[in-house]
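Design review, sub-item: ligand-bound model
Attendees: FS, YL, KQ
YL presented the inputs for the phenylalanine complex:
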Amino acid sequence: MDENDKIVEEAEEAASKARDSRSLYETKLKFLGREGRLATLMKRMKELAAAQRPVFGKQVNALRERLEVMFAEHEERMKREELMNKLAAERVDVTMPGKRHSEGALHPVTRVKNELIDIFSGMGFEVFEGPEIESDYYNFTALNTPADHPARDMQDTFYLTDEFLLRTQTSAGQIRLMERKKPPIKMLSPGRVFRSDDDATHSPMFHQMEGLVVDKGITLCDLQGMLDKFVEAMFSKTSRTRLRPSYFPFTEPSVEVDVSCYICGGKGCPLCKGTGWIEVLGAGMVNRRVLENCGVDPDVYTGFAFGMGIERIAMLKYGINNIKLLTENDVRFLDQFKN
Ligand code: PHE
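KQ shared the predicted structure:
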């Protein structure tokens, strides 16, 4: 019995020295583990006479119980201490001033692009994205603009090789889609385009949104009706459109589309340069040649196409006077577009 007390005392001392649950556990193993003190004691059983064994066994069991209770208490204490330490370490001072996280916002070009996609997908258009590096064929030839065509001068092209170029217009997507899909077609194609052009309203890289509708019986009236719905949604309920004759090799007839000035309502102001109208996009009926180039029978199907500059729409909508602001990424400028 004296020896039991001594062992418990020893274990108690070792347990109180344990710094964490792990070392406490290791200490416990030294006494109660398979190779611990208690196990060693049990081995002594063999050396004893049969009559002494039950008494000895009882004493060892009593010792085991005392040790177990003692370790359980220490474990409990250790758990509490560790929890307290953890809580202390993770303490948050709720009276400290907060850290300000500056919130990001979508770029105005992205906003306008998303808005355009929203408006047109509401009319049943699906989005198709073509490549930024195009072949001369898709960007020009298939769009009824062969190599010697004077309309090539309308766009200053960045050529990569004789065959490849940075697309100057998203119209290339019209061809790619029509090669893949038979009418009825209602396609919207956003993307970056490139032209060797650089001033306050032109940038060598900008974004366009192309639209293409091909089906039986599509007319210029369908184009105008759709455009009216579009400007109502994009600018204001009272916005109107005006079609002026124009020229694009891939549309016939071609039109330039103006929207009534949403600032002055048509009376004339600095934004519309006193005319009451603002030019927003180019459009027209898809040229028969283009349909033929894509294997679509122009005697069965007709269609219209339109293309607009996303930066231009953003500049009009937000009153931005220099296109460079849209690529400089000055946070003082971008900050103004947080809803
Ligand atoms: N691709 C023309 C441009 O870049 C715009 C356009 C698209 C005109 C579709 C008519 C039809 O100027």
